[in-house]
Amino acid sequence: MKIIKIGAMWCPACIIMNKFWNKIKEEFKNIEFIDYDLDIDEEQVKSYNVGNILPVIIAMNNNIEQSRLIGEKNEKEVLEFIRKIGV
């Protein structure tokens, strides 16, 4: 299982969520977390069909998308998302 977070340095919601993102990564050591910047990592981000709302958090299993969160979420919502996907 891996979780991909796509954000941007200029994105206010991404900045807010970064405050608890590292804490979440520490809690789920069995998940591979990948962080992409929409502008810097253009090639990697292309295949994920990211719309106009950031951040986008994508749960992947065997390189198949299982679920995604779009837009600003609080820590509780992100934790519920991760637990719901069966981690």
CATH-wise, what's the superfamily? Glutaredoxin
List the secondary-structure elements in sequence, H or E: EHEHEEH
* Shape label: globular
Main beta sheet strand tally, sense and closure: 4 strands, mixed
Strand order in the sheet with the most strands: 2-1-3-4
Number of domains: 1
> What is the residue-mean pLDDT, rounded to a whole number?
94
Percentage beta strand = 25-35%
Low-confidence stretches: none
Please give the count of helices.
3
CATH architecture title = 3-Layer(aba) Sandwich
Structural class: alpha+beta
Number of strands: 4
What is the CATH domain class? Answer: Alpha Beta
Residues in helices, as a percent range: 25-40%
Rg, rounded, reads 12 Å
Description:
The protein is of the alpha+beta class and 87 residues long. It has a single domain (2-84), classed as Glutaredoxin (3-Layer(aba) Sandwich). The protein is built from three helices and four strands; from the N terminus they run βαβαββα. β3 and β4 (64-70) form a beta hairpin. The radius of gyration is 12 Å and the shape is globular. The model has no long low-confidence stretch (mean pLDDT 94).
Describe the protein's topology.
Blueprint: E1 2-7, H1 12-27, E2 32-37, H2 42-45, E3 56-61, E4 64-70, H3 75-84
Parallel strand pairs: 1-2
Antiparallel strand pairs: 1-3, 3-4
Outline of this structure?
By secondary structure, this protein is an alpha+beta fold.
Keywords, separated by commas or semicolons:
alpha+beta, 87 residues, 4-stranded mixed sheet, 3 helices, 29% strand, Glutaredoxin
